[in-house]
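@channel sequence for tomorrow's demo:
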Amino acid sequence: MSDEQANYQAFRQRLDAVLRQQDPAALRAFLVAQGQWEPDANTDAERAMWLMIATSPALADLRDAAREWLLAHGCTAEVSAIFGGKRAAPPGQRSSGRSARPPGRHP
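structure tokens (generated this afternoon):
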């Protein structure tokens, strides 16, 4: 294993440990300390945290919580991209199970 791979694996393990805390402030502090984020960057750390959790294989046990948070906060395109399938409806909205008719067509 190259030094670059070993460094990345060590970084990834530390990042996953920070993400597991589910603390946006801790994530921001970690990424700034690692030189990944600028200290004065206007980044939505909570949104970034849940996106990172959703895509981390090591945090598979938190994927459902990430999906729910992302849906509840309007990140339907991201949920679709990460979790696949059709765009998910926001929490609390259920599909009627009927498909929509194309405009201008009547039975």
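heads up for whoever presents: Residues 3-83 form one domain.
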